[in-house]
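sorry for the late reply, my laptop died twice this morning and i had to redo everyting from scratch. anyway the thing you sent over, i finally got around to it. pasting the sequence first so we're on the same page, its 124 residues, then the predicted structure underneath. double check i copied it right bc i was rushing
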Amino acid sequence: MARIALIASLVVLSLVTVAAADGAHSGRIVAIDAATRTLTLEELGPAPGEAPVAMTRAVEVSPDTRVELFIRAEGPGETDWPGGFTAKSLTPSELRPGDFATVTVVTDGARLRARTVAVVRPGE
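ok and here's the structure:
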């Protein structure tokens, strides 16, 4: 009986570890490598002083990754609330350096794989 409880506990802990591997990262896209289907995201993270520290993360983007551009609605009625956003589907090849993105990822070994990329373009 104790052996079954131990095995059940290990299974639950492994599921929690897998779920914790998923996450989201937000920052500016600073590079895109079409050959390796990788985007490099620059995030601002915590630092010992007042100024944040810039960190870069390489994220693999597949053809199955959902990519959307969010654009501020022009007028009333386009969204449920004034000043809302509308979404437009993009292909991964339409991503560009300078885009601000929130990327939901899953960890695959040492690599980050993008599930979704939500983009806002400054000035658009």
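The first strand starts at residue 23 and ends at 33.
thats about all i looked at so far, will dig more tmrw
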